[in-house]
Amino acid sequence: MEIEKKLNELGFKVPSVPKPAATYIGYVQVGNLLFVGGNVGRIDGQPLKYSGKVGDTVTLEQAYEMARHCALNHLAIIKAALGSLDRVERVVKVIGYVNVAPGFTDMPKVVNGESDLLVQLWGERGEHTRAAVGVASLSRDAPVETEIIVQVRG
User: Is 103 exposed, middle or buried (CB count within 10 Å of its CB: 0-12, 13-18, 19+)?
Assistant: First the structure.
């Protein structure tokens, strides 16, 4: 419960596990790697707090917050899959897709919304490889979608 305690101390809680919106499952474990699918940052089934293109109707700060919401959903899925966030040995990779307006190029700053929280929770074990990609559109007109891969403790 160490990681969840840290999360609570940061003012956050693990939300309910998001339900897949189509024909897929939320995670797949292969050996000691847990692959968690993308999500758009809807918390507890509520509508998106912000929607639209980053650099147009959504600010960088709002998109950063939505990426953090994606991280919180990932934590919910990881906890459901493993029983405890403390079973994460290391965060391996985060992939972020940012719904960008023409000319917006600060995708890494948006995806930091997830990355920063992971490092706050796990320290060096939360440091990860990453891609932050600008895209023309996302499901539900979300400003950001992220996915994550973590290494699981034996």
Answer: exposed
Q: Which two tokens stand for residue 45?
A: 């089934």
Q: Cβ distance 152 to 82 under 8 Å? A: yes
Q: What's the total number of domains in the chain?
A: 1
Residue 102 lies in a domain: no
- Within 13-106, residue ranges assigned H as helices are 60-82
pLDDT for the residue numbered 74: 98
The pLDDT of residue 19 is 87
Query: Which residue, 14, 143, 5, is CA-closest to 78?
Result: 14
**99 belongs to a structural domain:** no
pLDDT above 90 for 5: yes
Token readout for 126 is 């939360």
**H/E run at residue 6:** helix 2-9
- Reported as a single tens digit per residue, the pLDDT across 34-50 is 999 999 999 998 999 99
CATH code for the domain in which residue 77 is found: 3.30.1330.40
In 3-state terms, the chain is what percent helix, strand and coil (to 5)? Answer: 35, 25, 35
Domain holding 73, by residue range, is 2-90+110-152
Contact 26, 20 (CB under 8 A): yes
Predicted structure pTM score: 0.96
